[in-house]
């Protein structure tokens, strides 16, 4: 069982930056792939970014949605049991509740993740 707590959301102007954090407790953090998803009002939850478990031998360690590629960066600090989402060049369409999620394997579908945080609101004004 993994508990996840997000932080770092807020209100920012278009073109600005935010860094989201997600701290995990219980379980061995480095064994989990971590993902970020977002959900805007009236829309389905969508994939944003993911990073493989620390021990993974695969060459490709991260994945991004096309809509955020080049603007967002996912990273992890296993010593702090924390995954980050650095968001630059924010746009109004990035406004959503952002959730972090954990599971054994990297995936881009929300159905593949067993553990979820409570979410943090990101609002980008134009």
Question: Can you give me a brief rundown of this structure?
Answer:
The protein is 0% helix and 48% strand. It is mainly β and 126 residues long.
Span of the ends, CA to CA: 40 Å
What is the multimeric organization of the chains shown? single chain
Q: What's the alpha carbon Rg, rounded to whole Å?
A: 14 Å
As residue ranges, the low-confidence spans are none
Descriptive notes:
With about 130 residues, this protein is mostly beta strands. The protein is about 0% helix and about 50% strand. The chain contains no helices and 11 strands. The strands form 2 sheets. Strands 2, 4, 5, 6, 9, 10 and 11 form a 7-stranded mixed beta sheet that branches. It has a 4-stranded antiparallel beta sheet with strand order 1-3-8-7, with no helix packed on it. A hairpin with a 4-residue loop joins strand 7 and strand 8.
Core attributes:
7-stranded mixed beta sheet; 4-stranded antiparallel beta sheet; 0% helix; 126 residues; 48% strand
Map the helices and strands.
Layout: E1 3-7, E2 10-13, E3 18-25, E4 33-39, E5 46-51, E6 62-64, E7 72-77, E8 82-87, E9 96-103, E10 115-116, E11 120-125
Parallel strand pairs: 2-11
Antiparallel strand pairs: 1-3, 3-8, 4-5, 4-9, 5-6, 7-8, 9-10, 9-11
């Amino acid at each position: 069982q993994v508990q996840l707590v997000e932080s770092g959301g807020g209100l920012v102007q278009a073109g600005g930056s935010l860094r989201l954090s997600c701290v995990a407790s219980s379980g061995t953090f480095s064994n989990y792939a971590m993902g970020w998803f977002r959900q805007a009002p009236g829309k389905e939850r969508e994939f944003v970014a993911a990073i493989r478990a620390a021990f993974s031998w695969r060459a490709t360690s991260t994945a991004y949605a096309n809509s955020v590629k080049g603007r967002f960066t996912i990273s992890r600090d296993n010593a702090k049991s924390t995954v980050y989402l650095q968001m630059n060049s924010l746009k109004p369409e990035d406004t959503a509740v952002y959730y972090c999620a954990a599971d054994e394997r990297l995936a881009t579908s929300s159905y593949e993740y067993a553990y979820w945080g409570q979410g943090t609101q990101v609002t980008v004004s134009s």
